[in-house]
Amino acid sequence: MKRVFFGLLIGLWAAPTMAQTSLLPTLEVFRAQYPTPMTQAQKAELLNRVAWQHRADGWGILEKSGGTRCPAPQGLDVACDILMHLPSGGHWDVLIDHDYAAIPVWRYVGPIALNRFVAPVKPPQAVTQEDLVV
């Protein structure tokens, strides 16, 4: 009985992170539109575009003030390889070898401070319903 209870408890604890839909298909489509290697600004732009595409689900990018970071369209520095999900408080590593190949991946890293969440801004490439209204 204890094993069942602990298994259920672990399953419920992990559910918010496991239930997140992978954004890997979006990452792969957008990544193909950039050169290799990408500039730091291009990496932040890519992450912002992916987060913007999924903003209704609570996705954003991660503010970063030290170490390797990329200049985001929002006017601040962000992690060059991380997406953050505000509702769950989790963050995902989404680019490996970001210094050169910037290969899209989908790997849950863990919870992170919510005050580092950066909401995406509309990228120049995005078309919204408002843009279609004449």
Query: Which spans of ≥5 residues are poorly predicted at pLDDT below 50?
Result: 1-18
**How many strands appear in the DSSP assignment?**
6
Give the C-alpha Rg. Answer: 16 Å
Secondary-structure element string? HHHEEEEEEH
Average predicted local confidence, pLDDT = 86
Helical proportion?
Answer: 25-40%
Major sheet size, sense and barrel closure: 6 strands, antiparallel
Shape annotation: globular
> Termini, distance in Å?
63 Å
The number of helical segments is: 4
Structural class category: alpha+beta
- Beta-strand content: 25-35%
Oligomer: single chain
In short:
By secondary structure, this protein is of the alpha+beta class. Helices cover 32% and strands 25% of the residues.
Write a concise keyword list for the protein shown above.
single chain; 134 residues; alpha+beta; globular; disordered N terminus
What does this structure look like?
This protein has 134 residues and is an alpha+beta fold. The protein is 32% helix and 25% strand. Strand 3 (77-85) and strand 4 (90-96) form a beta hairpin. Mean pLDDT is 86; it is low at 1-18.
